[in-house]
Design goal:
alpha/beta, Oxidized Rhodanese, domain 1, 5-stranded parallel beta sheet, two-stranded antiparallel ribbon, globular
Length: 123
């Protein structure tokens, strides 16, 4: 399934137009720094042994957003957010966009490197 991927600047523009912004990184990563205005729905949890998939990711998104909600997803470098966007599209979400460079950058400057608005601490 093909998912539209956008740059950090394009993601910021969508959020300014009213799109929801969902950071799918772990809770620890999110608390350490995140795009301002984003909400956290981890696609995986950081545990002692590494990353563990969140079995409730799609169900949590379905509780938080209607299937036709306009949603931009982001992560650290673009891998988890693409996987999340594909899962959401496969489950019937109709307007999901992946912010391809993530917070830290993945092959191109990410949200932080571009100087876009950042928040930190507990959400």
């Amino acid at each position: 399934m093909s998912v539209r991927r956008v740059s950090p600047h394009e993601a910021q523009s969508l959020v300014e137009q009213g799109w929801a912004f969902v950071d799918v990184r772990s809770e620890q990563e999110f608390a350490a720094g995140r795009p301002a205005g984003s909400v956290n729905v981890p696609i995986a949890f950081l545990r002692a042994g590494g990353m563990v998939p969140n079995p409730d990711f799609v169900a949590t998104m379905e509780r938080m957003f209607a299937k036709d909600a306009r949603v931009v997803v982001t992560c650290k470098s673009g891998g988890r957010s693409l996987r999340a966007a594909e899962l959401l599209a496969a489950s019937g979400f109709t307007s999901v966009v992946d912010q391809r460079a993530g917070f830290d950058g993945g092959g191109e400057p990410g949200w932080r490197a571009l100087g876009l608005p950042i928040a930190s601490g507990p959400a």
